[in-house]
Amino acid sequence: MAMTGQEIIDLIRAGIPDADVRIEDLRGDGDHYAAHIVSPSFKGLSRVQQHQLVYAALKGKMGMELHALSIHTAAAK
Amino acid sequence: MENIIFERIKKDIETNDVVLFMKGTAAFPQCGFSAAVVQVLSQLGVPFKDINVLEDAAIRQGIKDFTQWPTIPQLYVKGEFVGGCDIVREMFVAGELQELLKEKGVSFKNAA
Fold this sequence. Notes:
Radius of gyration of chain B: 13 Å
Oligomer: heterodimer
Number of helices of chain A: 2
CATH topology of chain B: Glutaredoxin
CATH superfamily of chain A: BolA-like
Shape of chain B: globular
Structural class of chain B: alpha+beta
Number of domains of chain A: 1
Strand order of the largest sheet of chain A: 1-2-3
Order of helices and strands of chain A: HEEHE
Helix content of chain A: 25-40%
Number of strands of chain B: 4
Largest sheet of chain A: 3 strands, mixed
């Protein structure tokens, strides 16, 4: 069962409390989202490490219920 | 079982400068994200080895365990995991992918 944008936001914020999360529903089908995440916790981390923090917050759902989630991270706006 | 797969993965990424674990092949990508990375690499004119994980379930799971990265495609340059589709595209747009290739001594035709 695909996830809603809000569920994704809640999961990411639970895992990265200081994150500012914006979700884009790319195709309106509830299965293709882009997540724009800004968090001071990303400071000093490589892109791969930043994304791995997000994947950890998503607790294994990435690649399972969450098939197509495009992730864009930044340490600060 | 896992270390056999890891050994195979290590061999591939150490014996080829640029390796792309993807769904489908460079000529026939079977997933939009994999196709996007193939397009970036073709635009840069960097030769790479494509490994079709759809043909090998053990590699398809093994590669995710190897890097603790849950999705395909996965790009490697000189044995180092660079990222998936989002990261490769962001690095390409920012010119960081070109920098990385130069730094690692991997030649490519077009600076794009």
